[in-house]
Design brief:
The protein is mostly helical. The protein is 79% helix and 0% strand. It has 8 helices and no strands. Helix 4 runs antiparallel to helix 5. The protein is globular and about 65 Å long.
């Protein structure tokens, strides 16, 4: 049950960014509920419509893999659409990562301003760790591979081209 909770929790990550950027809006009392409920409603309707179309293309029992939308288009022999679906999924992951970085800075700023950063951070790490521990080994392998790739990109490309890093070397 905790594994299911972890998957559902991480599937909705991104909607919380709307709430973390509340200080950026002119009228948060009315804009925030409209933004959050509106975005959830739109995504839910789109999810239901896509699910209806996909299960209309291919029987539900045949969509057992991790990529049912792409599998449905592959089953009806539409390879170009399958590639577009995979490309869209990759772009969505990239966009989500960027949004999480935006939201995390706002959350950290608000927590530091309220002097909650140490206490909440410890509790958050503990609860996230409990949810992450219920995920399968494949998730940890994926994390390790992407982490290693990020470290390589950082040290091979980003760090040598960093403006701040070059300024530090010039002043030393």
């Amino acid at each position: 049950m905790l594994g299911g909770a972890a998957v559902v929790f991480f599937a909705y990550i991104g909607f919380d960014i709307v709430a973390t950027t509340a200080e950026e809006t002119r009228n948060p009392q009315s804009d925030m509920p409209v933004g959050i409920i509106g975005s959830l409603a739109i995504v839910t309707v789109l999810y239901v419509l896509v699910s209806a179309v996909i299960t209309g293309m291919v029987p539900f029992g045949e969509l057992a893999g991790e990529t049912p939308v792409a599998e449905a288009f592959a089953a009806v022999e539409m390879p170009v659409v399958t590639i577009i679906v995979f490309a869209g999924a990759l772009l969505a992951l990239f966009k989500t990562t960027l949004l999480l970085m935006l939201g995390q800075t706002r959350v950290a700023f608000a927590m530091a301003r309220d002097r909650l950063l140490p206490v909440v951070s410890v509790l958050t790490v503990a609860m996230s760790g409990a949810l992450i521990a219920t995920l399968g080994a494949a998730n940890f392998i994926r994390f390790g591979v992407w982490f290693a790739l990020g470290v390589v990109v950082y040290f091979a490309y980003s760090r040598p081209r960093s403006t701040v890093g070059r300024r530090g070397e010039a002043s030393a």
